[in-house]
Amino acid sequence: MAAGADVPCAVLALLVLGLLAAGGDATAGFIKSPLSQRRLTQDSVELHCEAVGSPIPEIQWWFEGNEPNETSAQLWDGAWQDRVQINATYNLHSTSTISIANLTSDDSGTYECRASNDPDRNHLSKSPKVKWIRSQANVLVIERPVITGQYSSTADKVILSCNMSAPHAVIRGHKWMLGDKILKTDESDSNSYISYTIEGKVEDHSGVYECIYEMNPVAKGNVSIEVQPQVVAYKKSEHGNEGDTGVLTCKSPSYPPVESWVWFKSGQMDPIVNGTGSYIIKSAGNKTELRILKLSIEKDMGDYHCNGTNVKGSGGATVNLRVRSRLAALWPFLGIVAEVLVLVTIIFIYEKRRKPDEVLDGKRWLRSNLPGDAGKSNATNHKDKNVRQRNAN
């Protein structure tokens, strides 16, 4: 059955599934066939095949190279120095996928998916009543082109470039990637030489960049920017309470990854050894962590230095650790209580000094408003008036 015959395969699948539901037998038939592909050397290829029938058919994979006198040979899981992997499932129908890694030019040829549900299909002396059905796909392995990648840098700019020698097909465009992130895409550039400019210092843009040429098959090159570790502290200053566990963290976003981490305490020549005293060090790739158990104000306060090393050199950072007393959390509360007490004391003293004057003022007011005093006051006023009149005469 030719690859790509999806409609007949779907009809056949429905007929077979109907027979299975009715409990009848049905010869094997393909519902998915492998597709022909083009690959480069050192790439991998994957072919998929599915078949139905009652009973459920067995699927085998066979290969025939492009050499004139080469014959077909069955492929097994682990064949070709473990480059071949076959995964098959037999549930409601048969599915099988063959994967071939690290392709070479000798892997070019015809890959055949065979299926059969005849009980005598593997008998050594009996001929099967129903022959194996077959579906083929051609795989063409092309020699990988040479792609030269390099970079140049200035104080504030990095220029990446790739150059492909002897392209095997027409270039329909290209793109630049860093990991899973697409940095630049150009669908109209058919040149074999391409470049990409990054603004900034080279130390801030280390990593493995991919230059991808859109062609059949796709060709990829890479540009590797390697720098010494650019170590930074997660926090330049850490705080902890006495008796708690302090955690100091350093990391390096640079490439290549850090191979070894070392911690030092300011004023000490020897590095901190993991597991000694109250120190625990956990390092993984571009991150390291120093844990200090049961913090002490006298022993643990100070500066700590983390140092990372890779094939390009070393880099470090400093973290300052401050340890507070357990009563530190109560200081704000005690300060508020003290302020309230001082305020209450001031008010109390003020009120105590102010009360005698208020009582005296009250007595004077009463005396001035009594009737007898009022008459006395009027007499005094008349007397003063007469004196003034005599003086005037």
Automatic annotation (TrEMBL):
Q: Mark the transmembrane ranges.
A: 329-350
Task: Give start-end ranges for the coiled-coil region(s).
Answer: none
Q: Which residues form the signal peptide?
A: 1-26
Membrane topology for this entry? Single-pass type I membrane protein
GO annotations of cellular component type: axon; basolateral plasma membrane; endoplasmic reticulum membrane
Where in or outside the cell? Basolateral cell membrane; Endoplasmic reticulum membrane
Keywords in alphabetical order:
Cell membrane, Disulfide bond, Endoplasmic reticulum, Glycoprotein, Immunoglobulin domain, Membrane, Receptor, Signal, Transmembrane, Transmembrane helix
Residue ranges occupied by any Ig-like domain in the UniProt entry? 43-131, 229-324
Q: Which molecular-function annotations from GO does this UniProt entry contain?
A: cell-cell adhesion mediator activity
Does this entry carry the keyword Glycoprotein?
Answer: yes
Q: Where is this region: Disordered?
A: 371-393
Name the Pfam families on file. Ig_3
Would the keyword Ubl conjugation turn up in this protein's UniProt record? no
GO terms (BP aspect): axon guidance; dendrite self-avoidance; homophilic cell adhesion via plasma membrane adhesion molecules
Q: What is the name of this protein?
A: Basigin
